[in-house]
Hints:
alpha/beta; TIM Barrel; 8-stranded parallel sheet; two-stranded antiparallel ribbon; globular
Amino acid sequence: MDFLDKLRAAERTNASLLCVGLDPEPARFPLGMRGDAGKIFDFCAAIVDATADLVIAFKPQIAYFAAHRAEDQLERLMAHMRQSAPGIPIILDAKRGDIGSTAEQYAKEAFERYGADAVTLSPFMGLDSILPYLKYPGKGAFLLCRTSNPGGDDLQAQRLSSVEGEPMLYEHIARLAQGPWNQNGQLGLVVGATYPAEIERVRAIAPTLPLLIPGVGAQGGDASATVKAGWRSVAGQTTAPIVVNSSRAILYADPGASFAEAARREARKTRDLLQAAKG
């Protein structure tokens, strides 16, 4: 089963568009774990086990592990997710963007070392920075397109020329991903939930690509507006998948010993809100 098939199956099985982002910050762990980077696996595995039947995907952010020398714990966590939730795709949030043999090593890291189903990438260096990842059959790659941070305007919202009607950079990226770059049907796009109008624009340009949409929850993105802008179906069947990520609002829903149960409640609430927005 390739990444897109796995994504669609998880959406149907769990009736979910919710992705739980795994961004472990030991300083925010519950009492008994707080400040202990050696407990990153334990914390994240508890979140995974509590929410696996509520999500369309999990998204570990590699920097939160690397900053604490916890790559070995990330390997354990990836193996745990594949074993305990084998039907749930794993998106490694790495935002890599190099070329040549370096890109090949990053692709090997994502798909061979960690066993991810998909990875996030920066397309700034062009197609040759993407191709090494597309050599892995059935794997996915989400290209940064219109990100949720205010500074995204600095480049992404700039027009390619001063001529009226010329596309903005993010629109050009969406066209490339929907068209000539998507050689094996492996590409998706990252579009922030804080820009629902841009989500709708990207969806119009890229009508079939999966969209990874961060920014719901602590970042303030509107869950209902996000679904209406990005999710598409025909006769009740999803034609254009979306993966709506929430991290901190779920991970740190409760600072006490019942953190996993609280994470489950918050995940269920967000999952149900996203489902209701489908209409």
